[in-house]
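Structure in, sequence out. Go:
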Protein backbone atom coordinates (compact mmCIF):
# COMPACT_ATOMS: atom_id res chain seq x y z
CA UNK A 1 0.00 0.00 0.00
CA UNK A 2 1.24 3.45 -0.90
CA UNK A 3 -0.62 6.05 1.17
CA UNK A 4 -0.70 9.79 1.76
CA UNK A 5 -1.37 11.11 5.25
CA UNK A 6 -2.64 14.60 5.97
CA UNK A 7 -1.30 16.32 9.08
CA UNK A 8 -1.67 19.81 10.51
CA UNK A 9 1.27 22.19 10.89
CA UNK A 10 1.58 21.03 14.50
CA UNK A 11 1.76 17.37 13.44
CA UNK A 12 -1.76 16.28 14.33
CA UNK A 13 -2.82 13.53 11.91
CA UNK A 14 -6.06 14.22 10.02
CA UNK A 15 -6.29 10.95 8.08
CA UNK A 16 -5.42 9.41 4.74
CA UNK A 17 -5.97 11.50 1.63
CA UNK A 18 -4.96 8.77 -0.82
CA UNK A 19 -4.12 5.08 -0.89
CA UNK A 20 -2.86 2.91 -3.73
CA UNK A 21 -2.74 -0.87 -3.51
CA UNK A 22 -0.68 -2.86 -5.98
CA UNK A 23 1.14 -6.14 -6.36
CA UNK A 24 4.40 -6.65 -8.16
CA UNK A 25 4.06 -9.32 -10.80
CA UNK A 26 7.80 -9.71 -11.16
CA UNK A 27 10.67 -7.58 -9.91
CA UNK A 28 14.29 -8.37 -10.65
CA UNK A 29 15.72 -5.20 -9.17
CA UNK A 30 16.63 -1.88 -10.68
CA UNK A 31 20.12 -2.90 -11.82
CA UNK A 32 18.83 -5.95 -13.70
CA UNK A 33 16.18 -3.80 -15.37
CA UNK A 34 18.72 -1.13 -16.41
CA UNK A 35 20.73 -3.76 -18.33
CA UNK A 36 17.79 -4.23 -20.72
CA UNK A 37 16.01 -0.88 -20.70
CA UNK A 38 16.90 2.77 -20.16
CA UNK A 39 14.41 3.72 -17.40
CA UNK A 40 14.43 7.38 -18.44
CA UNK A 41 12.91 6.37 -21.79
CA UNK A 42 9.98 4.45 -20.28
CA UNK A 43 6.71 6.41 -19.87
CA UNK A 44 5.99 7.24 -16.22
CA UNK A 45 2.48 5.75 -16.54
CA UNK A 46 4.01 2.28 -16.95
CA UNK A 47 6.32 2.56 -13.94
CA UNK A 48 5.63 1.50 -10.38
CA UNK A 49 6.59 5.01 -9.24
CA UNK A 50 3.51 6.39 -11.03
CA UNK A 51 1.68 5.84 -7.72
CA UNK A 52 3.37 9.00 -6.40
CA UNK A 53 1.64 11.07 -9.09
CA UNK A 54 -1.70 9.31 -8.53
CA UNK A 55 -1.58 9.97 -4.79
CA UNK A 56 -0.63 13.61 -5.36
CA UNK A 57 -3.62 14.12 -7.66
CA UNK A 58 -6.01 12.22 -5.38
CA UNK A 59 -4.88 14.20 -2.31
CA UNK A 60 -5.33 17.52 -4.10
CA UNK A 61 -8.80 16.47 -5.30
CA UNK A 62 -9.80 15.58 -1.74
CA UNK A 63 -8.27 18.62 -0.02
CA UNK A 64 -9.34 21.04 -2.75
CA UNK A 65 -6.76 23.74 -1.99
CA UNK A 66 -3.44 22.74 -3.55
CA UNK A 67 -1.75 25.98 -2.54
CA UNK A 68 -2.21 25.04 1.15
CA UNK A 69 -0.57 21.62 0.74
CA UNK A 70 3.05 20.59 1.03
CA UNK A 71 3.67 17.02 -0.11
CA UNK A 72 6.59 15.33 1.61
CA UNK A 73 8.30 12.32 0.07
CA UNK A 74 11.27 10.08 0.66
CA UNK A 75 14.10 9.42 -1.82
CA UNK A 76 11.77 7.32 -3.95
CA UNK A 77 9.66 10.42 -4.68
CA UNK A 78 12.59 12.19 -6.39
CA UNK A 79 10.88 11.91 -9.79
CA UNK A 80 10.99 14.62 -12.45
CA UNK A 81 7.38 13.91 -13.49
CA UNK A 82 6.25 14.41 -9.90
CA UNK A 83 7.82 17.85 -9.88
CA UNK A 84 6.03 18.69 -13.14
CA UNK A 85 2.69 17.41 -11.81
CA UNK A 86 3.03 19.37 -8.55
CA UNK A 87 3.84 22.52 -10.51
CA UNK A 88 0.88 21.98 -12.86
CA UNK A 89 -1.47 21.49 -9.89
CA UNK A 90 -0.14 24.55 -8.05
CA UNK A 91 1.04 22.66 -4.98
CA UNK A 92 4.33 22.44 -3.12
CA UNK A 93 6.54 19.49 -2.31
CA UNK A 94 9.57 18.52 -0.31
CA UNK A 95 11.62 15.55 -1.47
CA UNK A 96 14.67 13.91 -0.03
CA UNK A 97 17.13 14.05 -2.92
CA UNK A 98 18.18 10.80 -4.55
CA UNK A 99 19.29 11.82 -8.05
CA UNK A 100 22.10 14.24 -8.85
CA UNK A 101 19.95 16.16 -11.33
CA UNK A 102 20.98 18.89 -13.69
CA UNK A 103 20.37 22.24 -12.05
CA UNK A 104 20.26 25.83 -13.08
CA UNK A 105 23.54 27.51 -12.16
CA UNK A 106 22.99 29.86 -9.19
CA UNK A 107 23.29 33.56 -10.01
CA UNK A 108 26.22 33.95 -7.61
CA UNK A 109 28.19 30.99 -9.04
CA UNK A 110 31.48 31.63 -10.81
CA UNK A 111 31.58 30.66 -14.51
CA UNK A 112 33.95 27.73 -13.82
CA UNK A 113 32.00 26.57 -10.75
CA UNK A 114 30.51 23.06 -11.25
CA UNK A 115 27.30 24.09 -9.45
CA UNK A 116 25.14 22.85 -12.31
CA UNK A 117 24.18 19.70 -10.37
CA UNK A 118 21.93 19.34 -7.34
CA UNK A 119 24.55 17.63 -5.13
CA UNK A 120 27.07 20.44 -5.71
CA UNK A 121 24.52 23.08 -4.73
CA UNK A 122 23.51 21.13 -1.63
CA UNK A 123 27.16 20.69 -0.65
CA UNK A 124 27.57 24.47 -0.76
CA UNK A 125 24.47 25.10 1.38
CA UNK A 126 25.03 25.84 5.08
CA UNK A 127 23.97 23.37 7.76
CA UNK A 128 20.52 24.32 9.05
CA UNK A 129 20.61 22.26 12.21
CA UNK A 130 22.12 19.44 14.14
CA UNK A 131 20.10 17.00 16.22
CA UNK A 132 21.28 14.34 18.65
CA UNK A 133 19.43 11.06 18.25
CA UNK A 134 19.43 8.18 20.70
CA UNK A 135 20.01 4.89 18.85
CA UNK A 136 19.69 2.69 21.93
CA UNK A 137 20.35 3.02 25.67
CA UNK A 138 24.11 3.37 25.31
CA UNK A 139 24.54 4.93 21.89
CA UNK A 140 23.66 8.27 20.32
CA UNK A 141 24.45 9.77 16.94
CA UNK A 142 24.09 13.14 15.25
CA UNK A 143 21.78 14.05 12.38
CA UNK A 144 22.85 17.11 10.45
CA UNK A 145 20.27 18.82 8.25
CA UNK A 146 20.68 21.13 5.28
CA UNK A 147 18.25 22.23 2.61
CA UNK A 148 18.10 24.54 -0.38
CA UNK A 149 15.68 25.68 -3.04
CA UNK A 150 17.22 24.53 -6.32
CA UNK A 151 15.94 25.05 -9.85
CA UNK A 152 16.28 21.66 -11.52
CA UNK A 153 16.38 21.08 -15.24
CA UNK A 154 14.83 18.22 -17.23
CA UNK A 155 16.82 15.00 -17.49
CA UNK A 156 18.82 14.73 -20.72
CA UNK A 157 16.28 12.31 -22.22
CA UNK A 158 13.42 14.75 -21.57
CA UNK A 159 15.05 18.02 -22.59
CA UNK A 160 13.15 18.19 -25.86
CA UNK A 161 10.14 19.11 -23.74
CA UNK A 162 9.67 22.63 -22.45
CA UNK A 163 12.27 23.47 -19.83
CA UNK A 164 10.60 23.85 -16.45
CA UNK A 165 12.02 25.40 -13.30
CA UNK A 166 11.42 23.93 -9.84
Amino acid sequence: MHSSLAVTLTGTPLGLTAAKFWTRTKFKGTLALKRHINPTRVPIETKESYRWLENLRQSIALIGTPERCVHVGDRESDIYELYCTAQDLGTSFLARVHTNRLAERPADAAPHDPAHRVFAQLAAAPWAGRHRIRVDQDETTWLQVKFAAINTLPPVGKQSATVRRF
